[in-house]
Amino acid sequence: MAVLAGVGVGLAVLYVTLVTVPHALGVHGAIWSLAANFATCITVSAFTRPPSDETVERIHGAVEDYVYGSGEAGSEEALRSS
Predict the structure, then answer these.
(1) Are residues 45 and 58 in the same domain?
(2) Residue 56 zone, left/alpha/beta (φ > 0; ψ -120 to 50; rest)
(3) Three-class DSSP category at 40
(4) 60: domain range?
(5) pLDDT digits (tens, 9 = 90+) for 3-37
(6) 14 and 41 in one domain?
(7) Per-residue model confidence as pLDDT tens digits over 42-72
(8) What is the pTM of this model?
């Protein structure tokens, strides 16, 4: 959730600082965008609840199976269903 919000805010700030107010305060728009993205990610993460332990284990387990090839059936489906 936080990353999606950060990307949205970052793109909006990038548009504003490249098109509407180019090089605000002498700083390139990409720097403003990265700063806004970082601040948004931290803020949204602070106010949302973390995923359950079951969700974390399911995702991490599926990624490990996919990367290290445990050979278990269903690991790819677990990644797609999340």
Answers:
(1) no
(2) alpha
(3) helix
(4) 51-82
(5) 999 999 999 999 999 999 888 899 999 999 999 99
(6) yes
(7) 999 999 998 888 888 888 888 888 888 765 5
(8) 0.66
Q: Where are the alpha helices (DSSP H) in 16-50?
A: 29-47
From the CB of residue 79, how many other CB atoms can be counted at a distance below 10 Å? 14
**The two three-digit tokens of residue 53, written as one number:** 């332990």
Structure token digits, residue 56 = 């974390």
Say if residue 35 is in the same domain as residue 22: yes
For the chain, the domain total comes to 2
In this structure, the answer to whether residues 3 and 40 fall within a common structural domain is yes
Q: State the angle between helix axes of 2-15 and 29-47 in degrees (0 to 180), rounded to the nearest 10.
A: 150
17 contacts 23 by C-beta, under 8 angstroms: yes
Q: Give Cα 10 to chain centroid, integer Å.
A: 11
Tell me the H-state helices in the chain: 2-15, 29-47, 53-68, 75-81
